[in-house]
């Protein structure tokens, strides 16, 4: 098995991949009319125009609340509500990932670009995100303001540097979110959580906050309308979501996982937590065996260990 690290065209045989595609995306009649859609577009434009001003004008102690409110408002303009469930016990201080000033490493499954808004709607965070995200329309500017940590998964040699950035920023008291699957899945099926990024939690002795994130209809059934998979374009995904109605982003804050000393064990524990009670459905995703789909090759993690 070989890999290349050539500028502009890097690839390797164990590049994270998903069998999900546009065939997985729900097509139903839960849509809004042209007037409502236009109202949403105007609302999004207004939020993007006013956020830099509001964020700069308020005192530092209020910035988290302002950023959280804007994330929730953007979701509402996309027709998405947020529901937060806390499974961590009564002693946890409120519906948030960490107390102000405390660093946190948060991991979640990855469905689409709305995950960023949904997770930030609980408490402002920074993300480990695909390197080209800053070039996306609308979300690009938001990504820059959220100080994303860029990752190019085609370049394995860059992974240790990403791990160090995560560790440094956690140590500095930042809340960092990673999507260790390495790519998006539709939400009815999921991939494995790759172990490499969990090394940052081990290096800093930081407990990990797993999130079980799903998108549901008001009746509780799963929906894949928010997924961003396969050949889906950003424009098509945005238009589909703006046309949709009645989506709820459900975020379950699972019990904290202690880092330990083995990133594979930590990743496995967090994967079980991230999946929660969901029954995975691989039948319509070109995957014959769910155990095979959850199998993670060892080579990339071993390579990262050698070059770290």
From TrEMBL:
Biological source species: Antrihabitans stalactiti
Protein name from the UniProt record: 1-acyl-sn-glycerol-3-phosphate acyltransferase
Phospholipid/glycerol acyltransferase domain boundaries: 104-216
Keyword line: Acyltransferase, Lipid biosynthesis, Lipid metabolism, Transferase
Pfam families reported in the protein's UniProt record: Acyltransferase
Pathway the protein contributes to: Lipid metabolism
Presence of the UniProt keyword Plastid in the record: no
Record PANTHER family: 1-ACYL-SN-GLYCEROL-3-PHOSPHATE ACYLTRANSFERASE, 1-ACYL-SN-GLYCEROL-3-PHOSPHATE ACYLTRANSFERASE-RELATED
Keyword match Protein transport: no
Residues in the signal sequence: none
GO molecular function: 1-acylglycerol-3-phosphate O-acyltransferase activity
Alphabetized SUPFAM superfamilies for the sequence: Glycerol-3-phosphate (1)-acyltransferase (SSF69593)
Top-level taxonomy: Bacteria, Bacillati, Actinomycetota, Actinomycetes, Mycobacteriales
